């Protein structure tokens, strides 16, 4: 044919051309293959996986098993397909010990990096109890490093990584020196420390690391891994809606990566705590009574389980994903890992009835409960391969209010700090990472206190939500560093607003005695500039599409009106 006929839609500014080709050409065509890039079926990739629980590990590959939502998983398939399995990386499970004789863990057990601080010996084997109470660490270890293709239990997220056992939870009480010794154990051998514990999740405890442990964590991020920094992964807590993980000084530390959980259909687990310091999420057991909705992993004495649960299950999954990223790029620093978590985590199909997804001032999507979303192993290893170490980190005291301000029910105390974020000084912060509001406040009922903070770019962080079980009327919060990650990448210059009030039926009174604003971040971040450009472009395109839809609707209404008149 010498030309192609075309049709043009009456209702659109665009037209589509349909070309007809001679029949002889169609008959002579040779067939060849085409495949969607980045997509391969599960059977194609994992046909050789012989582990009996692998098909039940929905958090690795969610095909809808146990009433789950297909595709809602850690996307380890892509990372494994690229050849990353955690080889050369050691993850320490700080817990109640590890059954290192377990046939699914023995080949990946790192005896050199293991220790028992509860019994002060190099054999962190769990203490026997009739109810298997000390199975926690073994279950966490299997999520990270259970061997593949050995016909035993399931597969670890980083199934070629090494796992170390640090037994430190099983004694009548905890001490600062046991915690500090555990967190600082062999920091040149251990790459990642996974902790699925913290202060009591009773909705009324405010607690965190003591002096020696704080120093150990600071030394870890500054000196561990040859100066690249130890990576601390922390479970955000199981206190549910009665608690707030910003009252947990381990999970809310800048030096840790705080991980929350979602269940297999994308909802929040009923025991999940929410707070502004959570960076990302992984998975835990489902709400339904399906016996296969739990987390499948190794159990004590060579056994397997389908019932591991809680944010205890979430932190080791994250440690496994980070091990894959470290294998892709061993030069990643502790801060690089946090940046990669922010940039590659996905909203996917996570949703919560209370906390909606929002975007911060540079367009990064976050949720008060899920952080920046579920970790995506495939996206993380691909970005890690090309990642350049983030610039030097600076700290700026943006301002401090030391006067006593009364707080009463029925109203809000609103305070502001205006800052240039130390502009013109060596410690100028232009792009935010963490923000801390160091607050001293008390009230006639601490659990009814609510604290929000809004950045100059308009991002609101809930620093403290109500805790209905907290009846404290004496201690309050004494220089407590409430932390938010929600303003990541923002320009901190301008006016910050702090709102403090009481919620609840009973009248309360209190006083805020200090608010010090601490800014932590960098002076350059080229990827943030690109994110802003992309976000602005999407906003402009979205606005253009809205205008085009309005125009099309107006034209359609006009045509219908003309036709009805005729």
Strand content: 15-25%
Largest sheet: 7 strands, parallel
CATH architecture of the largest domain: 3-Layer(aba) Sandwich
Radius of gyration: 26 Å
**Reading side by side through the largest sheet, how are the strands ordered?**
4-5-3-6-7-8-9
Task: Return the structural class.
Answer: alpha/beta
Shape by Cα distribution: globular
Count of alpha and pi helical runs: 10
CATH uppermost class of the largest domain: Alpha Beta
Secondary structure: helix percent: 10-25%
CATH homologous superfamily label of the largest domain: Peptidase S8/S53 domain
What's the pLDDT, averaged over the residues?
89
The CATH topology of the largest domain turns out to be Rossmann fold
Number of strands: 22
- The CA-CA distance between the termini, in Å, is 41 Å
Uncertain spans: 1-27, 31-47
When the domains are counted, the total is 2
What would your notes on this structure say?
The chain has 566 residues and is an alpha/beta fold. It folds into two domains: 58-386, Peptidase S8/S53 domain (Rossmann fold), CATH 3.40.50; 394-524, Jelly Rolls (Sandwich), CATH 2.60.120. The chain is 22% helix and 23% strand. It has ten helices and 22 strands. The strands form six sheets. A seven-stranded parallel beta sheet has the order 4-5-3-6-7-8-9, with helices on both faces. Strands 14, 15, 17, 20 and 22 form a five-stranded antiparallel beta sheet that branches. Strands 16-21-18-19 form a four-stranded antiparallel beta sheet, with no helix packed on it. Strand 12 (358-359) and strand 13 form a beta hairpin. Helix 5 packs parallel to helix 6, helix 7 (311-328) runs parallel beside helix 9 and helix 8 (334-344) crosses helix 9 (377-386).
């Amino acid at each position: 044919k010498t030309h192609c006929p075309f049709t043009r839609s009456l209702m659109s500014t665009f037209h589509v051309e349909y070309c007809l080709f001679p029949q002889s050409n169609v008959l002579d065509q040779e067939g060849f293959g085409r495949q969607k890039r980045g997509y391969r079926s599960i059977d194609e990739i994992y046909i050789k996986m012989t582990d009996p629980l692998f098909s039940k590990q929905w958090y690795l590959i969610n095909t809808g098993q146990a009433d789950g939502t297909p595709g809602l998983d850690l996307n380890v398939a892509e990372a494994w397909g690229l050849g990353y399995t955690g080889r050369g990386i050691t993850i320490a499970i700080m817990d109640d010990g590890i059954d290192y004789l377990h046939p699914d863990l023995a080949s990946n057990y790192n005896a050199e990096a293991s220790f028992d601080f509860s019994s002060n010996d190099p054999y962190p084997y769990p203490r026997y109890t009739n109810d298997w109470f000390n199975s926690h660490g073994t279950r966490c270890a299997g999520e990270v490093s259970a061997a593949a293709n050995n016909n035993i239990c399931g597969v670890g997220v980083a199934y070629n990584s090494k796992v170390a056992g640090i037994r430190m939870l099983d004694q009548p009480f905890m001490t600062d020196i046991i915690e500090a010794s555990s967190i600082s154990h062999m920091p040149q051998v251990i790459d990642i420390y996974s902790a699925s514990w913290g202060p009591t999740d009773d909705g009324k405890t405010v607690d965190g690391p003591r002096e020696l442990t704080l120093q150990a964590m600071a030394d870890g991020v500054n000196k561990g891994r040859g100066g690249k920094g130890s990576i601390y992964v922390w479970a955000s807590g199981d206190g549910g809606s009665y608690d707030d993980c910003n009252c947990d000084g381990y999970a809310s530390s800048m030096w840790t990566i705080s991980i929350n959980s979602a269940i297999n259909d994308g909802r929040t687990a009923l025991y999940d705590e929410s707070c502004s310091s959570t960076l990302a999420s992984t998975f835990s057991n489902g709400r339904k009574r399906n016996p296969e909705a739990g987390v499948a992993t190794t159990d004590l004495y060579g056994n397997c389980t389908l019932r591991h649960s809680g944010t205890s299950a979430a932190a080791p999954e994250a440690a496994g994903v980070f091990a894959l990223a470290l294998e892709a790029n061993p030069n990643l620093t502790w801060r690089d890992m946090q940046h990669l978590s922010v940039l590659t985590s996905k909203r996917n199909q996570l949703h919560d009835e209370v906390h909606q997804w929002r975007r911060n001032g540079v367009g990064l999507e976050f949720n008060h409960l899920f952080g920046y979303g579920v970790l995506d192993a495939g996206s993380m290893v691909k970005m890690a391969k090309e990642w350049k170490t983030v610039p030097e980190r600076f700290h700026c005291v943006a301002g401090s209010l030391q006067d006593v301000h009364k707080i009463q029910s029925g109203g809000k105390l609103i305070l502001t700090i205006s800052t240039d974020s130390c502009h013109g000084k060596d410690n100028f912060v232009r792009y935010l990472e963490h923000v801390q509001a160091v607050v001293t406040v008390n009230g006639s009922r601490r659990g009814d206190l609510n604290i929000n903070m809004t950045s100059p770019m308009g991002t609101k962080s809930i620093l403290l939500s109500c805790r209905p079980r907290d009846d404290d009327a004496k201690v309050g919060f004494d220089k407590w560093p409430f932390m938010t990650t929600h303003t990541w990448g923002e320009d901190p210059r301008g006016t910050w607003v702090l709102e403090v009030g009481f919620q609840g039926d009973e009248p309360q009174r209190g006083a805020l005695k200090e608010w010090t604003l601490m800014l932590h971040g960098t002076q350059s971040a080229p990827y943030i500039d690109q994110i802003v450009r992309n976000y602005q472009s999407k906003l402009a395109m979205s606005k253009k599409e809205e205008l085009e839809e309005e125009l099309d609707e107006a034209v359609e209404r006009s045509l219908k009106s003309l036709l009805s008149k005729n």
